[in-house]
Amino acid sequence: MARLTEHLTFLYGAAAAERWAPVFTERIENFARAHPELARRPRALATSPAEAWLITYGDQITREDEAPLATLARFLDRWLAPAFSGVHLLPIYPYSSDDGFSVIDYRAVDPRLGGWDHVRALAERYALMLDAVINHASQESAWFQGFLRCEEPYRRYFLVPPEDWDLSRVVRPRTTPLLTEFQTACGPKRVWTTFSADQVDLNYREPEVLLEVLELLLFYAAHGARRLRLDAVGFVWKEPGTTCLNLPQTHEVVRLFRTALDAAAPEVALVTETNVPHAENVAYFGSGEDEAQLVYNFALPPLVLHAFARGDARALARWAAELELPGPKAAFLNFLASHDGIGLRPVEGILPPEEVAFLVERTLAHGGEVSYRDTPAGPAPYELNTTWYDALNPPGTPEALGVRRLLASHAIMLALAGLPAVYVHALFGTPNWRKGYEQSGEKRKLNRRKFREAEVEAWLTDPGSRPRRILDGLKARLTLRAGHPAFHPAAPQRVLDLGAGVFAVERGAEGERALVAVNVTGQPQPLVLETEGWRDARTGAPAGRARVLEPYADLWLTRDEA
Known about the structure:
Largest sheet: 8 strands, parallel, barrel
Strand content: 15-25%
Low-confidence stretches: none
Keywords: Glycosyltransferase, Transferase
CATH superfamily of the domain at 44-133 and 215-392 and 417-473: Glycosidases
Oligomer: single chain
Mean pLDDT: 96
Shape: globular
GO biological process, one term: carbohydrate metabolic process
GO molecular function: glycosyltransferase activity
Strand order of the largest sheet: 1-3-4-9-10-11-12-16
Organism: Oceanithermus profundus (strain DSM 14977 / NBRC 100410 / VKM B-2274 / 506)
CATH class of the domain at 44-133 and 215-392 and 417-473: Alpha Beta
InterPro entries: GGa_phosphorylase, GH, GH13_cat_dom, O16G_dom_2, Sucrose_GGa_phosphorylase-rel
């Protein structure tokens, strides 16, 4: 495979590429022969307006004497299908910290969740996204234990930078030490630990590590994954004297993964998770054909939050008006809430520092927390740790108003070009879990509470409960989206100027168009639209030219031309 040789030459040089390219090629071809059904599927990002994702932990909902993945499947079947067609399972592997993101065994399902049979059963009914936590591994992993014993090949699996490496420009996502000293059979080693001492960075400067990770991705594809989320992928390659973030070699690693999957499992799409400034983030699309098919739209959550916090959508609208895709086989993964916090780096250069400071102060006033990272100028805010409901709503907000704000914010996300993903806690309107934070000292616990099936059933069987009203509202909007081709993830979009208090976007092209307008304020907003031929998507009635958009209301119009 000529392209594999090109990737390996870029990363390791011609001599190493000559040695390793046949090995990589053999592993990929063996996989394709073992899984011909995957190799025959089309090389495309097959999406439609009906594709929508739930982001959840495998043990988000539990009951006694049942594997949590089976409980989750029943919840999906009963309450979410068919509005949600896909499920993103956050790490399902045995782990030692960070709620799954410090992986002990990449090829096993945590027995506390179930087994691979439960994963495959989910994959038979829903599109499945699995996490590939490929920047680092747990201290307790067999790989790192082999490193501590100085065993081959594991003694080279983790990065121990030479003493003369210039690390002065390294970009940090945390305030924890970059290097952690471990006692090994070969003596003390200072090992690279980007995120924590229990999350030890893999050494991609060794071809064996890259091959090992590639085989993991193929393994996940064989077990039903149709999307692979490359966690923290921007950090995987390190070079002295650089930022060690989003380096050219990192992009080449993603290209190599894309080449291999296009050959062996072309239906499987890569999803890059890079919580960095917007221009760096979208660079992971590459040409639109050679890197990730999907990129997390990280600037969207803080900009939507800012619009509702200020009652002013202009910053959001300016940014959205400039969004571009490199081609029809690429799409944004749009989201507002996730298992992590609301990242602030993505709005560097989009929101001025004083507006970022405003979001920080507001989050603290709403009962949230803020995580920081080290910079040359000192600690800087990195992410807001809060549930989406509490981020939007001040303490004491009447519940009906809080639900309206949450649904209006999601209407913006659902209207934009891309694939929508809803985190389970936004689905329920969960408040900040202060008890979990206070018990653990981990700020992200505010947004990671787990539930018993009985309490979820009690919420959702009560039509007046907050979770049920939110779920019904989201499903209704997902149905509107799914019902019109103008909301195809790659369909054109045009942001409209309807005043500071309204975010409005027109989707589609001549013949099939849709328009969504959202009031981001607590005041009625007068609208004047050129609406000849347009109909209200909810009622089917002709749309009037002048109307008033009530506080936190969203208007959905469609137009089908012969």
